[in-house]
Amino acid sequence: MIASLRGFVEEIAGDGSSAVLDVGGVGYEVNIDTRTAAQLSALAEGEEVRLYTYLQVREDAMVLFGFLSRDELQLFKKLITVSGIGPKGGLSLISMGADELRFAIASGDTKMISHAPGIGKRTAERLVLELKDKIDVSASVGPDGSPYAPQDGDVSAADPAASDAAQALAALGYSMSDAVRAVKQAKSEGSEDTESLLKAALKYLA
User: Fold this and answer.
1) Model-level pTM?
2) Which residues pair with 129 in a beta bridge?
3) Pick the residue with more confidence: 156 or 4?
4) Residue 93 in 3-state DSSP?
5) pLDDT tens, 44-82?
6) What is the distance between the alpha carbons of residues 50 and 92, in angstroms, rounded to a whole number?
7) How far, CA to CA in Å, does 15 sit from each of 106, 164, 166, 203?
8) Strand ranges (E), the chain
């Protein structure tokens, strides 16, 4: 099984659905999500990248799916255990962002989940039903598999002020996914404590 690939980006499909990674002179075509495509496009010429991969074996082909972190790969594997969600659907969901998707599942935000291309309301509801109790919104890891260290703008259990602000917004009736985005915006603008984060986030949501 191919667990990961490390090499240089040779080309990226025009629609961002796949990339060819040159690994020791061998080009591997890897299906990717739109966020990964954007990040690969931003790499400097000659810069190496590692993609963590999932290999789908079909009767007519073997298809690789690639992710920039083990965290995204593990979330993808959970997604495709849900009936009605195949690898393509899993990629579509991952393109929303791993943290945003986890919060949407944990908070039952089927409206946000169904915004992903190819994911309808019933599939979103099934996804929440089957994974809600299996998703840990604080369980994030870095690209090398080490415990995730919060960065500026992140919202997680390791950032009590931001987490409390997001929970307060959710209590006011906002979806958790919208609350998380608003709190991230507030943090990026310099707010730190719960009260200032909440006030700034409310202005962002207005």
Assistant:
1) 0.69
2) none
3) 4
4) helix
5) 888 999 999 999 998 888 999 999 999 999 999 999 999
6) 20
7) 30, 38, 34, 35
8) 4-12, 18-23, 26-31, 49-57, 62-67
